[in-house]
Structure formats: C-alpha cells, structure tokens
C-alpha cells in the first residue's frame, strides 16, 4: 500500500506545486513508484509535468464526480517519470457538485484506494484554499506535507492550517498526521528567514525537515518546459536540493537503511 501525502498550505505561492512536481520526480530517480494527484483547478502541476491541461480526455473532475474510475484517468508522464491524475478548470465545478453528493468528503479516498497498491507514494497537490477539494485531500491522506516560505506572515497562515488539520482529525480523519514541514525559497542571509526558521524548529521539532529548498531560478523556469528541474538542469541548486529532500524523505519514511541511490540514467 502506498503512503499518501497532501501537499498543503492555505497560502498561495509558497512552493506547493513546485514540490508536488520535484519531490516526486526525485523519488522516481531513486526508484520509487509515485502518483501525483493534481487537485488544483489551475492545473499547474499537470502542465509542469508535461501534460496539456487543455487536452485531457478525463481528469480529477471525472474521478471525483464518479464519471470514471481512477485508473482510467491516470496518465503516464513522458519525462517526469511519475504517473499523474491530471486536472484543469473543470475541477472548479467539482467543488460545487461535491456538496450535493453522498460521502462528499471521502470521494478521493475511495478513488485512490483502487490504485494505491501500485505506488510507494501518492502526493496530492492542493489548491491554496480550504474547500471541498482540500477536505477530500486531507481525508484521503495519512499525512500532510507543508511547504513554507520563511517570511513574516508564514506563521500566521500556519496557525490557520493547523486549525484546519485539527478539525479534519475530529470530523473525518483522526489518523491524519503532520508528515513534514519544508522550508522553501530559503535564504540563510536573510535575518527574517533565520528568525522564522528558529520559530518553526521550536514549534515543530523534528517534523521540520533539515533539507531546505533555496530560491533558484531554474525551479521557476522548468515548468514552462513541462519537466521537473532534474530533467531541465541536472546540476542546478534546485535539482540538488530536491534530491537531498527526497533522500531525507525516504529515510524518514522507510528507515535509515533504505536505498537512496540514484538510478544510473539520472546521474
Ligand atoms: P504554490 O503551488 O504554493 O502556489 P508554486 O510552487 O506554484 O506555489 O510557486 C509559486 C511561484 O514561485 C512559481 O512561479 C514557482 O515557479 C516559483 N517558485 C517556487 N519555488 C521556488 C524556488 N525555490 N525558487 C524560485 N522560484 C520558486
Ligand atoms: Mg499550486
């Protein structure tokens, strides 16, 4: 069975989608089988994985609203190496349609249970809001994975997110854990970054990942070529950072002795 992570933070622009593409592709380079679920109507994770959101026969919308099963809508990405349940603007309609459906919070969970035996990890890229889509993601997941930019307002947004997680735990998913906090667009020369970083350490202890993601222009450029940074610029700081993150991620989830070597074709 796979472990399911919801990549979530109600703040936009903190690196959720960048992480939803680059952590999975780095895990694939380390020979893990991964599914990425795009649950944001903007379809950025879809486009960034090299799949055109305007050309989808079936998408997360069809799966959530019961028009097809999960397997039918999953596509293989060409270069990124993971499988993708893609999304586009149709998902906006699902937000509303779900409200009148039976077991509306559990629809993604049910859909993913059909395919989860095929993967080591499943990542769900959440929209930057708390709506029925995010509730479905947090119900389907065992853990949240939270990218955070170390800036002044970061902690304020985090309080809201922790409140949401507590509510989900109470109502639909008592098992839900915080699977990790990731510092993104990290700049150690900035005093504020260090202050926020210290506070995160104090608050979250070992849930805070040691690996950090620096600001790196290659990470911002890669999506326009429809590839993860690993396939765009192998030696960039962004590539190195996401590979280091994947190594730490595997050791945390599979134990210190797990194999984190990189497959030959990615070296
Ligand atoms: P979210 O999904 O949380 O809204 P994104 O991953 O889409 O955030 O990131 C927001 C913007 O910042 C995007 O244009 C992305 O390319 C850019 N970005 C994300 N992470 C980095 C980084 N580490 N360095 C430089 N640019 C980044
Ligand atoms: Mg996003």
TrEMBL record:
Check the record and name the CDD domains matching this protein.
Answer: ParAB_family
Q: Where is the AAA domain?
A: 3-178
A Pfam family this chain is assigned to: AAA_31
Tell me which PANTHER family the record gives: P-LOOP CONTAINING NUCLEOSIDE TRIPHOSPHATE HYDROLASE, PARA FAMILY PROTEIN CT_582
Q: Which family does it belong to?
A: To B.subtilis soj.
In its UniProt entry, what is this protein called? ParA family protein
**Can you name the source organism?**
Reinekea thalattae
Q: What lineage does UniProt assign to this protein's organism?
A: Bacteria, Pseudomonadati, Pseudomonadota, Gammaproteobacteria, Oceanospirillales
